[in-house]
């Protein structure tokens, strides 16, 4: 029998948890290397536009679906569109979260390894070549990577099994403020290095010669990745909200925090990279090869790098909580008695699915035909296909299956949302968001 769903203890707890889900590796790990590979400022400008004009409307749509139904992802769509196949949006989201966490946890494991090594002083005296060799040794050591992948998943399971208030909310209440403080300290150190302005210019000055369809699609995927959109994580999180919470203000707060952290990530990384003569186009290993080398050349560099790794671990965990939560919630159907058992079963299954990604840099070869590792193929599938497709379906579903006046009434609960502002949001969601996603896809594959 379905029981009263859990709820957040406070609005702040919800915002910190949702922001933690949004920020994670998307802003700190993925944004810098994706921006570095795609021209810096031009990519970041497109990313910001995607975040504001596509991400924010979609975020509010997911919030509305979740709070209106008070159901987790699959049941939410089934409640709003019974006797139809629209619940497959929720199933797509749960599947995408399952796959995303499987390789996300691998990166989380790398971070755990680096934290242990940083604390034990194993990075002292290494140069850039030494850090490159260190990363290769870590990622190619199958047992070490699998063990760290397992440890990270256990940390995630232990929090999620505790529920919304006692698990996720309690953890993010101290993790997120600590994350912000550590970030500010690192940014101050980075931007005060000699030659830091070159990195700042790279990050903020848009060179539009670097823009093409692929870059725009990557920026779109990055925006959805950074806000955890398209996989109905925010539908699940908002289902635990009380009716009097202000949805538009919460959505704006989360987008603002995500943008703020994205800017901090760029300011923490690019000024230091350029100041010390490194390249920003290193790709996924940027924070594991280039950044340790950068910090090693700073005064108190070992301390700053250790702080950065702690920051990264907190951000990764807060995102992992939300990804496991959507899977667990879809199985338990708001029955807290099942939560602990389901959290362990789902978490261990996700760990198992992540084994090929964990071994991608080592014994497993590049996949034939697509020319990617299992890790790279999983990342591409989630970020550039499943997230945008999920977002497209949510943008179509919301105005199609929820009456316009019902949407306005739901959003107005606890909010001073004006009708004129609502009309702008509705127009963006119904027309601009789906068209923009389709155009980005068609352009990226060369049709237009």
TrEMBL record:
<feature type="transmembrane region" description="Helical">
    <location>
        <begin position="298"/>
        <end position="321"/>
    </location>
</feature>
<keyword id="KW-0812">Transmembrane</keyword>
<feature type="transmembrane region" description="Helical">
    <location>
        <begin position="216"/>
        <end position="240"/>
    </location>
</feature>
<dbReference type="GO" id="GO:0016020">
    <property type="term" value="C:membrane"/>
</dbReference>
<dbReference type="InterPro" id="IPR037272">
    <property type="entry name" value="SNS_sf"/>
</dbReference>
<feature type="transmembrane region" description="Helical">
    <location>
        <begin position="252"/>
        <end position="278"/>
    </location>
</feature>
<feature type="transmembrane region" description="Helical">
    <location>
        <begin position="96"/>
        <end position="120"/>
    </location>
</feature>
<keyword id="KW-1133">Transmembrane helix</keyword>
<keyword id="KW-0813">Transport</keyword>
<feature type="transmembrane region" description="Helical">
    <location>
        <begin position="380"/>
        <end position="402"/>
    </location>
</feature>
<feature type="transmembrane region" description="Helical">
    <location>
        <begin position="140"/>
        <end position="160"/>
    </location>
</feature>
<feature type="transmembrane region" description="Helical">
    <location>
        <begin position="41"/>
        <end position="61"/>
    </location>
</feature>
<feature type="transmembrane region" description="Helical">
    <location>
        <begin position="423"/>
        <end position="445"/>
    </location>
</feature>
<feature type="transmembrane region" description="Helical">
    <location>
        <begin position="12"/>
        <end position="29"/>
    </location>
</feature>
<feature type="transmembrane region" description="Helical">
    <location>
        <begin position="342"/>
        <end position="360"/>
    </location>
</feature>
<dbReference type="Pfam" id="PF00209">
    <property type="entry name" value="SNF"/>
</dbReference>
<dbReference type="InterPro" id="IPR047218">
    <property type="entry name" value="YocR/YhdH-like"/>
</dbReference>
<keyword id="KW-0472">Membrane</keyword>
<dbReference type="InterPro" id="IPR000175">
    <property type="entry name" value="Na/ntran_symport"/>
</dbReference>
<feature type="transmembrane region" description="Helical">
    <location>
        <begin position="180"/>
        <end position="204"/>
    </location>
</feature>
<protein>
    <submittedName>
        <fullName>NSS family neurotransmitter:Na+ symporter</fullName>
    </submittedName>
</protein>
């Amino acid at each position: 029998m379905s029981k009263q769903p859990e709820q957040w203890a406070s609005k702040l707890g919800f915002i910190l948890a949702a922001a933690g889900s949004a920020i994670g590796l998307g802003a700190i790990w993925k944004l810098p290397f994706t921006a570095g590979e795609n021209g810096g400022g031009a990519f970041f400008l497109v990313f910001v536009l995607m975040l504001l004009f596509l991400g924010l409307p979609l975020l509010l749509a997911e919030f509305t679906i979740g709070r209106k139904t008070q159901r987790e992802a699959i049941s939410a769509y089934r409640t709003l569109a019974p006797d139809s196949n629209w619940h497959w949006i929720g199933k797509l989201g749960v599947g995408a979260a399952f796959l995303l966490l499987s390789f996300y946890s691998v990166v989380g494991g790398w971070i755990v390894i680096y934290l242990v090594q940083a604390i034990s002083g194993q990075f002292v005296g290494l140069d850039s070549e030494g850090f490159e060799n260190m990363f290769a040794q870590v990622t190619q050591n199958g047992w070490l990577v699998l063990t760290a992948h397992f440890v990270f998943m256990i940390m995630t399971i232990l929090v999620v099994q505790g529920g919304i208030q006692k698990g996720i909310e309690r953890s993010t209440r101290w993790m997120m403020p600590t994350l912000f403080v550590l970030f500010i300290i690192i940014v101050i150190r980075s931007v005060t290095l000699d030659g830091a302005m070159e990195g700042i210019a790279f990050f903020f000055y848009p060179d539009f010669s670097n823009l093409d369809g692929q870059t725009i699609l990557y920026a779109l995927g990055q925006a959805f990745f950074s806000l955890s959109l398209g996989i109905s994580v925010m539908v699940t999180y908002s289902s635990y909200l009380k009716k009097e919470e202000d949805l538009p203000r919460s959505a704006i707060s989360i987008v603002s925090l995500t943008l703020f952290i994205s800017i901090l990530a760029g300011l923490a990384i690019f000024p230091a990279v350029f100041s010390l003569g490194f390249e920003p186009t290193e790709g996924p290993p940027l924070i594991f090869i280039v950044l340790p080398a950068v910090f090693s050349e700073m005064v108190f560099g070992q301390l700053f790098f250790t702080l950065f790794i702690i920051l990264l671990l907190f951000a990764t965990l807060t995102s992992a909580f939300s990804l496991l939560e959507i899977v667990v919630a879809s199985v338990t159907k708001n029955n807290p008695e099942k939560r602990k058992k389901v959290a362990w079963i789902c978490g261990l299954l996700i760990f198992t699915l992540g084994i090929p990604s964990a071994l991608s840099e080592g014994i497993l070869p590049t996949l034939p035909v697509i020319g990617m590792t299992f890790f790279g193929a999983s990342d591409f599938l989630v970020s550039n296909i499943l997230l945008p497709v999920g977002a497209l379906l949510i943008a179509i579903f919301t105005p199609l299956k929820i009456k316009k006046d019902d949407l306005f009434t739901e959003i107005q609960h606890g909010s001073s949302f004006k009708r004129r502002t609502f009309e702008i949001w509705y127009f963006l969601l119904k027309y601009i968001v789906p068209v923009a996603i389709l155009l980005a896809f068609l352009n990226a594959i060369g049709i237009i």
